[in-house]
Amino acid sequence: MVFFKLIKIFLFLIPINLLSQGEIELSLNSDSIWRGITQNNGNASIGAELNFNLNNGFYSGFWIENCCSETKSYPNKEIGYKTGYIKNLKKNFDISIEYLGTNYPNSKKDNFDEIKLDFFFYDFLISYSTGLDGFPDYYEISYEYEFLDSFFNISYGDFKPYKKNPNSNGSNFNIGVLTNANDFSFEVSYFYFNSNMNSNLDNDGIIFSIAKKTFF
To answer: Of 19, 52, 124, 131, which is most buried, counting CB atoms within 10 Å of its CB?
Structure first.
């Protein structure tokens, strides 16, 4: 873990004159869905995200969301950070590697870290996230199609159980449409979670989201 902390410190100390673009996003969601699993028991959530992209391919970001409060024993706030590098290998083919840390201030036992590898090929994205310190791996494939000022997206992912918790063991499917209007975006999507261990844990629903982006 010390090695990864040193990587994060190194990337955040890259000279500011390499900054290509910064972005702040504020969002309101009808629920917080993570890999097909509701984190807010069907309740609305708000979030904020700050991202930096550098001219040399490195990037980093932070986010905060009031989620995961299914019961009083669950954490009620999620804070995360990411840092990574993206490289264009040839036309319509990019690859990126990313380190993510997700933290819950009032429930540190739920903290987890991952290393994520992404392959971008035309409008397709194949992602593999390997969990650290026993956190399970996750696989996902997605497709995105741009039309007018909108995006159609569809994805399928599979997640193994964490600490033998059946709630996190299953596959998920998501389909949605996102529309941009100036600095605002509006999205409606349908999600479905299929539990591999207990069909009573299967879940689906429709999620509405609105977000405001500011670039600097």
So the answer is: 52
